[in-house]
Amino acid sequence: MQLRNQVExxxxxxxxxxGLPEGARLSTRVLAEFHGVPKDYLSKALxxxxxxxxxxxxxxxxxxxxxxxxxxxxxxxxxxxxxxGAGRSFACTEIRCNSPCLAEDHKPRGPCQIARVMWQxxxxxxxxxxxxxxxxLVATLAQELPADQLTAAAEWMAERAGR
Amino acid sequence: MQLRNQVExxxxxxxxxxGLPEGARLSTRVLAEFHGVPKDYLSKALxxxxxxxxxxxxxxxxxxxxxxxxxxxxxxxxxxxxxxGAGRSFACTEIRCNSPCLAEDHKPRGPCQIARVMWQxxxxxxxxxxxxxxxxLVATLAQELPADQLTAAAEWMAERAGR
Lengths: 163, 163
Ligand code: FES
Ligand code: FES
Known about the structure:
Chains A, B: This is RrF2 family transcriptional regulator. With 163 residues, the first copy, chain A, is mostly helical. Chain A has 7 helices and 2 strands; from the N terminus they run H-H-H-E-E-H-H-H-H. Chain A is elongated. One FE2/S2 (inorganic) cluster binds at residues 92-96, 112, 114-115 of chain A. The site of one FE2/S2 (inorganic) cluster has 8 residues of chain B, from helix 5.
C-alpha cells in the first residue's frame, strides 16, 4: 500500500504557501522549481488541492496559488485526501456471502468482523493525520530549520511571488 | 491508497484455518470454493502467507494448508504485511533537498518534518493491526455468527479437510 509521490509534493507546497506573507501567491512553475518536481504532474496535484478548497488560484501574470483558508484549519488529512481521495484503504467485497454453506436468502448482520478491524486501523491513520495542521507544521519548520535556510527560501519566494 | 483484494481473502482464509480442528488442512481449491474467489489469484496470496511462515503447506492428495504457528501469535498486521509487503505507506523522496536556495553540500539533519507526521500515522495504522490476533478474531466470530452457520461451515470443512 503506497501513497502517490504527489502527496509529498502537495504537503510541501502547502507548507510553502502556509509560510508566505499575507496576500502573496506562487505559480505552479515557481513551486515546481523550488521542489525540483515536474511542473505538469505537480499541476495536477495543485488542481486537486484547489478543487478541495485548500488552495485558491488566480490567473494572470502575477497570479498563482495561495491557501484557500487559514493554515490552522488545514490538516495533513485534508491534503492527503485531496490528492488520494477519501476512500478507506480497505475495501470489503463481502466474500463472506459467497460461502456455499449459506442459505440462498442469507443476509449478514452488520459489517464483517474482519472489515471492522481493518477500518478501525484506517480510522487511526486518519486521526493521526487530522491531528496535525499546516500551522503546526510551519511552526515546527520555523523551530527546526536553520535560520539562514529559512531566510534564503523566503527571499527566493519574495522575488518570485505574485500579488 | 487502496489495499489489494487479496488482503480480504488472506484474512478470511487465515480465520478459517485458525478455526480448524488440530491437524486438519485445507487445499487452495477448497479455500477458493468456500470464499468464492479465483483459485489462481488466491494461490498467490497463500504462497505469500506461507513464505512469511504464517501458514504451512503440504503436498499430496490429502495435503493443504494449516497455520504455521498458533493463532494467538498471528496478528492482522502479519497477514496484511505478508500480502502487501512491510513497506511504509508514505515514501519520502527528499524533495526538500531539491531547493535552489540550498548550498551545494547541504545535508539535512534528521528526517523531514512532513515525513515524520506521515510515518507516525503509518505507525498508528500498524499498531491497530498488530493489536488484534487471529485467535481474538476467531473468538469474536464464534460469539457473533449464528450457531447454525458455524456448524454448517465446520461440517462443510470437515468433509473436505486433509490430514
Ligand atoms: S467479508 Fe469483507 S472483510 Fe469479511
Ligand atoms: S522531503 Fe520528503 S516528506 Fe519532506
